[in-house]
Amino acid sequence: MKAPRIRFGADYNPEQWDRTVWAQDFALMNEAGVNLVSVGIFSWAELEPCTGEYRFDWLDEVMDGLAAAGVMANLANATANPPPWFSACYPDALPMLSDGSRLWPGARQAFCPSSPVYRKHALRITRKIAERYSGHPALEMWHVSNEIGNHNALCYCDASAAAFRTWLEDRYGSLEELNRAWGTTFWGQRYSEWEQILPPRQTTSFGNPTQDLDFRRFSSEACLEIYRAERDLLREITPEIPITTNLTPNHLELDYWSWAPELDTIAVDHYLKANDPDGHIELSFVADLSRGLAGGAPWMLMEHSTSAVNWQPRNIAKRPGEMVRNSLQHVARGADAIMFFQWRASRFGAEKYHSAMVPHAGTDSKIWREVVELGEVLDRMGEVANTTLDADVALVFDWESWWALEARSHPSADVRYLDRVHALYRALWETGITVEVVSQNVDPSGYRLIVIPSLYIADAEIADRVNQFVSAGGCAVVTYLSGTVDENLHIGAPGLSGAFHDSLGVRVEEYFPLREGEEVALDDDSLAAVWTEMVHLEGADALVTYKDGPLPGVPAVTRYRYGEGTVWYMATRLDRETVGRVLKEAVKTAGIKPPIPMVTAPSGLEVTRRSGESGSYLFLINHGTDTAHVRAEGRDLVADRDVGGTLSLLPGRAAVVREESG
Amino acid sequence: MKAPRIRFGADYNPEQWDRTVWAQDFALMNEAGVNLVSVGIFSWAELEPCTGEYRFDWLDEVMDGLAAAGVMANLANATANPPPWFSACYPDALPMLSDGSRLWPGARQAFCPSSPVYRKHALRITRKIAERYSGHPALEMWHVSNEIGNHNALCYCDASAAAFRTWLEDRYGSLEELNRAWGTTFWGQRYSEWEQILPPRQTTSFGNPTQDLDFRRFSSEACLEIYRAERDLLREITPEIPITTNLTPNHLELDYWSWAPELDTIAVDHYLKANDPDGHIELSFVADLSRGLAGGAPWMLMEHSTSAVNWQPRNIAKRPGEMVRNSLQHVARGADAIMFFQWRASRFGAEKYHSAMVPHAGTDSKIWREVVELGEVLDRMGEVANTTLDADVALVFDWESWWALEARSHPSADVRYLDRVHALYRALWETGITVEVVSQNVDPSGYRLIVIPSLYIADAEIADRVNQFVSAGGCAVVTYLSGTVDENLHIGAPGLSGAFHDSLGVRVEEYFPLREGEEVALDDDSLAAVWTEMVHLEGADALVTYKDGPLPGVPAVTRYRYGEGTVWYMATRLDRETVGRVLKEAVKTAGIKPPIPMVTAPSGLEVTRRSGESGSYLFLINHGTDTAHVRAEGRDLVADRDVGGTLSLLPGRAAVVREESG
Amino acid sequence: MKAPRIRFGADYNPEQWDRTVWAQDFALMNEAGVNLVSVGIFSWAELEPCTGEYRFDWLDEVMDGLAAAGVMANLANATANPPPWFSACYPDALPMLSDGSRLWPGARQAFCPSSPVYRKHALRITRKIAERYSGHPALEMWHVSNEIGNHNALCYCDASAAAFRTWLEDRYGSLEELNRAWGTTFWGQRYSEWEQILPPRQTTSFGNPTQDLDFRRFSSEACLEIYRAERDLLREITPEIPITTNLTPNHLELDYWSWAPELDTIAVDHYLKANDPDGHIELSFVADLSRGLAGGAPWMLMEHSTSAVNWQPRNIAKRPGEMVRNSLQHVARGADAIMFFQWRASRFGAEKYHSAMVPHAGTDSKIWREVVELGEVLDRMGEVANTTLDADVALVFDWESWWALEARSHPSADVRYLDRVHALYRALWETGITVEVVSQNVDPSGYRLIVIPSLYIADAEIADRVNQFVSAGGCAVVTYLSGTVDENLHIGAPGLSGAFHDSLGVRVEEYFPLREGEEVALDDDSLAAVWTEMVHLEGADALVTYKDGPLPGVPAVTRYRYGEGTVWYMATRLDRETVGRVLKEAVKTAGIKPPIPMVTAPSGLEVTRRSGESGSYLFLINHGTDTAHVRAEGRDLVADRDVGGTLSLLPGRAAVVREESG
To answer: Helices C175-182 and C209-237, interaxial angle, to 10°?
Structure first.
């Protein structure tokens, strides 16, 4: 039985290098403290160079080398990209765009997720690999495919059409029910045979919104089916080996709430966006969402980068210390593995400018020195593994609402789902309290505050749960366009007031979106943009009202005492400060406290606590520009020294204090 | 024989609702004073759910209910969107874009306008409906299809290619004549067989401009053919029922001058653009164009909106009073029907956020209260029906010039047809005089002033008419790029001076377009942009010249005394004030007066007069921010009270005064 | 044996005009001094109106008329655009875009460059024309096709795929070698059969960069194959007639370094870009590049414009004198022919707004008067023909680096190849010295300074030549991303320091691209943008360092004394002034002098010297706003008068002084 540890490593693609490099790799892995590498992700064409001809010698050698070096393998089933022979034999398995054009080989994932012939060949190579490496001493876990659906989730070909119809038959049972759900009486679209139904290919004007939504539901499910089939086969052959696949939670196309239960451990990829000035907060959001997907359990950061990536328009290199800080942020929010893409920077191919653990500059480099430093820190932190976080606030995140809210036929193109999600999350982050990102199936009763940014689709069940939670004393914050439509995108009986109508205490009569760039003044002297609506108070109080714009005097923010609880409603796109003020009030009303008192801590100090059988660990990360002084007692596992009373944390630095009991 | 009345109503789509809602609909229609609804526009799939199987029970019930409620039906022949079974059976009838990709079902109008099989099926359902409802007491008029060609006017498929060839054979008689007209000696494009001719699909570089123009002519005609065929069939079955279709006059693709004579009454749809600060003037333009299409006769506003639409990037709700004001503007300019899309806001589909007469909020709403108010006003104004307007100025509007002027191979991409049309119209609007928008086939002799914005294509005939009109004492205002080319887009003998050369009194040697964002100063201290040209005076006087830019000292605006008349020529894109000044001078020179003296009226007061056998009606609409005080005597049909001497009109309000004779 | 002369003329397209115009044409050509016209470029459809039916009567008449008028013909083989019958018979020969859609007839060059059937038909018409006009007295030279590949260079169809595979087999010999070069181990792309290889059609993500590069190499070669085949046939029939085709050197798709040796004389087209404030410098660059392609020999300006073109978004007319000035700039840099597109402005077609020698306004026009003036000047300058220029500095220009540097998967989308090429060229232009633009195969030993802007791909050979050149005392200026990859785009052993590592004296550890619009301050108070990198000095001195940004204190510009020579390295995108300062220092260090001392000459004076057996000619062109005073002795061939001591040149004017010896 091994001691708990934080996994540390990267994607390892030895097939890109001569064997002479492999020995250097193993030595450097040991130097850095690497204990797990993902192998074989893009190796299908190397392992099955022609259909039915296999060549495992090189992978045998790699696996044996890893075992000898004491590095474990997160072994891929190699199905991420089919070999050129596959596409040449089965051109109908290429993905199709909504305009009917094909996507061709040359990059990766050039297959239709619903293609039966792709699935057949993927299972064949999966079986070969599983049977060969079953029982290999280096085999620690299975890595199914790679970022499934990242490039090909939405395929409009005839095979997808057939699979879509089957999925719809399952969902609706009858055409009559589908016609009702899709509202086909509008624009005369009633279907009389299943065969008439197609993916939402390019149209003359706005397509049917429910068809669009169902196609996204289907597509997420079609991608998940790939995972399920390959996982089932792996489980059959190696029942003792855990199985996962790397999710990209900030990605639009896949509803990971339905994926999460299928993974033995949640594994995610996360990359900073160059143009986001609050990248460290966005990182926290994705980490909290990953923990939410894991149901609170530890999760794996399967990929991030040591420095710049290569796929953004401008790829910003990480500043000194940033990579270590990013890594500890993930651990602070529940990650028990810190992995990178990739081990050694490629000399060729489309990602040769993506940073790696071993950069083009070699070991005499900022990157390598920080990799070694991080390895040491994570090694000291092994005891943190398996500990968990507590949160009193739940923020609801919903892929279906994201899909549906941004439909082209809506009142304003400026309403963007992530905009309000990130705004509310950021305001919570700045209060210092710990947030859990949850699905709309959440039971709110385990929290004190539930935050609901633009949950456009809400069924009666979630609305009931929220209403009961609030009437029993919970707090809630809701923004515009929440609960507006049911699962079929129908506007319900309360009109535009939506499913949360009862606990909001307001009636929404009509939407008044703003013009591009238009701002309206509020009576608290802030400015709002994008969205306003004609709100009538029905029990709630107006906290803020419009001073000008289309609706002077009308409430912009309301507060309603409903039963024992309180609900805040934001009827407009408030600016950062006002969102912050409302959230601060809600947090205070709900009686939620951060892990440590934040009064004297400067802005930008991130604090979380993980605890479990091994103890309690205070994570402190200083994103600000001033030194932070924090009361703490225990041992700082980063600096590897005792902390007695006050810990002073320089800008950019992190501490992980094993807290002394008492 | 019924008393004259203004028709009032909406598109009515009862198939989207349970029967229980229908009874409420009829009651509310009566409450609002609705007297006409358009029924069945998108009902093909409901009426013929499978090919050749019909289901009329629900429509029977609706028609009977309307008749019982005293509401008449503008009954559609339901061909606006073919049912899914049609597209599934005949995929070749789907429209094709110029890149060869198809447009698929899911929205509406997913058919090629030239498709023979579409036309066959459309006539079959038309016959069924016409035969069934011939003689029905609710049937008042026929609504053929819906916004024909709005989404599918330009189809590049092989069926369109075949129809295009037939159209070209009709137009040119011989290939030799086509080769001459298209100038196929340029770039070596001579055709030797008709079969070689294609629609202007995507090309390596600029396509043949005359091919492009002829394809637009053909496409407008192909859409009109749809109307003609369905109309002929309806006329055959119900010769006593008037027939129309709803035009969208601000739409690029269709040349409604050739459509207008085919309609029993002109019906148009008009929606405000959210980003137009002069939306009320653009509305006036479309209304005057609609009256022009109707040859001066009353016309129907078949669709507008009670508040926001849903298909613009940001959909702006109407402010209190705006919907009534918009409606009266249309009546003020000749509309005898005020109809909306749609009666009851949809709960689902792509337009559920489009406003309606019965909004999602129900009757306790701004919209419903204004609908009822408007119904009362229009009811009082019944006597205005069938009266007409007089105008002394004609503004020439020409779809072919619009199509041709904005070709990609032209001197400047910044030259936009509507830009000058709207600029000249706006200047006239601000003088308070009434304008008629006319085609280039106009006989100018009925007017005192003819305004010709960038009439790029002009044949010798229109040029002759204008020259004779001016030499006989008429006034004309002409802007750059008028008469530059003949109907085949050939530059004629006078070079760039164009067809109006004789009456302009200038010679144009060379174009000097300006750079993006560049402005040149004029000697009246205004700024011009986009376009300048080397003008030589040949009889005209320079009113304004350039102070800088490429042509310092060269005339920018000229005035020519030609025969007994006067012609102003604008050789550059003047700013708003300068256009206004020139037009004011032209109006004054032509001796044209507004319906009432405007001296003391504040800016933004719109005044028109309709008159006829029933009397004379002064329309006053205050778009300004100050109260307007106007001399008037009679009865204000809006406020329902007598006006004696001076009428004070608050900002945003309208009056319609039945003028006392004397 | 004729006296040397500057050729003067235009594309002549008489087929667009009635025969009655032809006689006027010949008379006007004589009036203007035209001595050469390009005939028949787009005449295929006129000469072969149906497949295999020929009609040469009109061209016979034109050729005879030219001969009678003493105007020589640069006769085209008419293959620039196949007739409509060709595309109708062989639709598979239409070009295909990367999305699989076709480009259709209607413009020009609507054929796949690799199409065997196109090539067959092109050779058939070539043979017909060559046989017919072999020995005709007007025939001076052959004009093969027209701007080959300008619109269709990149075709992704199956015929292109087949030709691409053949080209790859030639290049690599074995699939194994191709797999190695393309790095197909990355993303699992190993090919096991040649048939699996495709053009880089649209993909899910970034395609294989080496596949992209090889496809560009192949496509340039495929277009050149068209030229070679037609030239070989013409040479066979008329071995005594020189053959050329008109290149567009500022064009991305074709690598003219491989084309140049195949042309009997280099002929180029050049058009000013409306939005380039330094158009006269860009013109100089293209002229110096043209001379570079000609290996220093005289070349022909086959097309430019008398005034505006028609294919830019805004087409700027030339100011008085500009056309003469442009023409003399080309002669000043080695052109022995000044030709225009086109002789007479078209009345129809896609280029009717393109200026011509005979404009729409006729001969009473600025354009015609300047054409006549230019004809006189060029006639007096006949003796300049066959003289050449000397240059001490070589600027390396490389199409392959251009193709490869701007790949989508790179660190920054803001790195643009022409940006640095033009910046360095402009700095040299402003020092007044004469530059030769050369390929990376240049032998630097003939120069004193070699300037290397972002030569992304560099093999060991060029790096060795540069290193030896510098160590032997030469000077070099190198900018970032030079020599980064080998011909297969693999990053080599020195990591990011690249192939020029030895002579740069710096090591590059990591790239730090900047954000959009971001600027960093340098310690010389200038600002840099787009690009920075972590540079370590390894022998070089830091001339300028960063004051802020991601790398404060790190060198931005270095200078290295390597052997006897000196190398400057620019590690960031310096602003105009700083580039100028560094280049001035390099020019001074290298000991290079302009043709005449420039001390008192105002900014904007362009000076070159052509010399040869006939004498030495000083070209002076004043682009500035002040009169220039220059020491010169001899006869000014422009003004046709003697210059004794000082020549004063007004702004916008040019002089060509035949220098007196001594």
So the answer is: 120
> What's the pLDDT score for residue C661?
67
Structure tokens at A46: 């190397």
> CA of A492 to nearest chain B CA: how many angstroms apart?
7
CA angle (C78 as vertex; C74, C84 as ends), nearest 5: 155
Q: How many CB atoms lie within 10 A of CB B20?
A: 7
Q: What is the pTM of this model?
A: 0.97
Q: What is the pLDDT of residue A645?
A: 87
From chain C, pick out residues whose CB is under 8 angstroms from the CB of A109: 204-205
The residue type of A557 is V
* Token pair for B50: 């499978």
* C491·A360 Cβ contact <8 A: yes
All structural domains of chain B, each given as residue ranges with its CATH number in brackets, are 35-264 (3.20.20.80), 393-590 (3.40.50.880), 605-659 (2.60.40.1180)
Report CA A524 to chain centroid distance, whole Å. Answer: 35
Cis preceding linkage at A342, omega within 30: yes
Asked if the model's pLDDT at residue B220 lies above 90, the reply is yes
pLDDT, averaged across chain B: 96
Kindly report the backbone phi and psi dihedral angles of residue C375, in degrees, each rounded to the nearest multiple of 5, phi listed first: -60, -40
Helix (H, G, I), strand (E, B), or coil: what is residue A141?
A: strand
Q: Which entry of A48, A140, A147, A436 is annotated as an active-site residue?
A: A147
Work out whether strand B641-649 and strand B628-636 pair parallel, antiparallel, or are unpaired.
antiparallel
Cβ neighbours of C196 in A, within 8 Å:
84-85, 87-88
Hey, are the CB atoms on B100 and C101 less than 8 Å from each other?
A: yes
Query: Is C509 labeled as catalytic in the residue annotation?
Result: no
Q: Contact at 8 Å (CB) between C339 and C9?
A: yes
**Cβ A587 vs Cβ A598: under 8 Å:** no
- Pick left, alpha or beta for residue B313 (phi over 0 → left; psi -120 to 50 → alpha; otherwise beta): alpha
Nearest Cα residue to B334 out of B384, B401, B261: B384
Question: Rounded to a whole number, what is the distance in Å from the CA of A505 to chain C's nearest CA?
Answer: 45
CB atoms within 10 A of CB C468: 15
Kindly report the length of chain A.
Answer: 662
Mean pLDDT of A436-463: 95
Task: Cis check for the bond before A16: say yes or no (omega within 30 of 0).
Answer: no
What Å distances lie between residue A357 and A30, A134, A369, CA to CA?
A: 13, 29, 10
Q: Give ∠ CA A391-A392-A397 in degrees, rounded to 5.
A: 75
B303 is catalytic: yes
Q: Do A515 and B316 touch (CB under 8 A)?
A: yes
Q: What is the mean pLDDT of chain C?
A: 96
Helix axes B175-182, B158-172, angle to 10 degrees: 100
Q: Which residues have a Cβ under 8 Å from the Cβ of C423 and sit 6 or more positions away?
A: C453, C574, C576, C579
Helices (H) and strands (E) in chain A, counts: 17, 25
Contact indicator for A129, A78 with CB cutoff of 8 Å: yes
pLDDT at B460: 86
State the pairing for strand pair A615-622/C246-247: unpaired
Q: B121 and B81 in contact (C-beta within 8 Å)?
A: no
The shortest C-alpha distance from A516 to chain B (Å) reads 7
Omega of the bond prior to B342 within 30 degrees of 0, cis? Answer: yes
d(CA A365, CA A343): 15
Hey, what are B216's tokens?
């637009």
Beta bridge mates, C641: C636
Closest residue on chain B to A517 (Cα):
B314
Q: What percentage of residues in chain B have a pLDDT greater than 70?
A: 99
Tallying the residues shown for chain C, one arrives at 662
Q: Is B655 helix (H, G, I), strand (E, B) or coil?
A: strand
Mean pLDDT of A16-23: 96
Q: What is the DSSP letter of B14?
A: G
Between vectors from CA C561 to CA C556 and to CA C567, what angle results, nearest 5°? 55
